[in-house]
Design brief:
7 helices; six-stranded mixed sheet; alpha/beta; Rossmann fold
């Protein structure tokens, strides 16, 4: 297990529908080394987003073994998992998951506060990030006042603002026009070159081309890696 960012062994996820179980992930074995840029692909319903949720510790109803940075996630309490998440992971959600009653600026400040960064230092990091993403003029707006593409940009900015060791991204450019999408993928490439390990879910062959490995899922099984 040493030296790997992610190691999964026999991970499964099932939903109970009445007396029956419907499996979404089946016997997932997956290792990801530091600095990899891995793309998860497959048809709708293949289990891609579910796998990303397991990796991000947003889903706890799975079985099997999962080590993150050498820590046995399957053996940790919910509180310890959350602490591990805060320390290492940035997550770009397909549906943004911004906090509605916080402004853009406050949404970006939140993950920094979770890391225990001092208020004056957070203010500088947030200002720099707003500038980097061209959102200075929107810092006092609420998510409901933004377009889908603008909310997606805020979601990406929030995920990378803490400079996480592991970046998980679910269709990161799905709501962006092509120029914005390329900017985000170029940003991911730069982060990856600086050492960030990235796992993205995408239907886009172009986005997949930015990574160095493709893992294909079908009906919950890994069929190619």
């Amino acid at each position: 297990m040493s030296g790997l960012v992610i190691e999964l062994a026999g991970v499964e996820r099932a939903y109970r529908t009445g007396p029956a179980q419907t499996f979404v992930l089946r016997q997932i074995d997956l290792s990801i080394a530091p600095g990899e840029f891995v793309t998860i692909m497959g048809p709708s319903g293949a289990g891609k987003s579910t796998l990303l949720s397991v990796l991000g510790m947003l889903d706890s109803e799975w079985t099997g073994q999962y080590c993150l940075m050498g820590e046995p996630v399957d053996a940790l309490s919910a509180k310890k998992r959350w602490e591990l998440n805060k320390r290492h992971i940035g997550f770009v959600f397909q549906k943004y998951h911004l906090i509605d009653d916080l402004t853009v600026q406050e949404n970006l400040d939140l993950p920094l506060s979770y890391r225990g960064i001092k208020s004056k230092d957070r203010a500088g990091i947030v200002a720099e990030t707003l500038d980097r993403f061209g959102m200075v003029g929107k810092k006092d707006l609420y998510p409901s006042q933004l377009s889908g593409g603008q909310q997606q940009l805020v979601g990406v900015a929030r995920a990378v603002i803490t400079e996480p060791q592991l970046l998980l991204a679910d269709e990161p450019t799905g709501n962006l026009h092509s120029a914005q999408g390329e900017e985000i993928m170029d940003l991911f490439t730069r982060l990856n070159r600086q050492g960030t390990t990235i796992v993205q879910v995408t239907h886009s062959e172009r986005n997949a081309s930015y990574g160095n490995r493709i893992v294909n899922l079908r009906d919950g099984w890994i069929v190619d890696r």
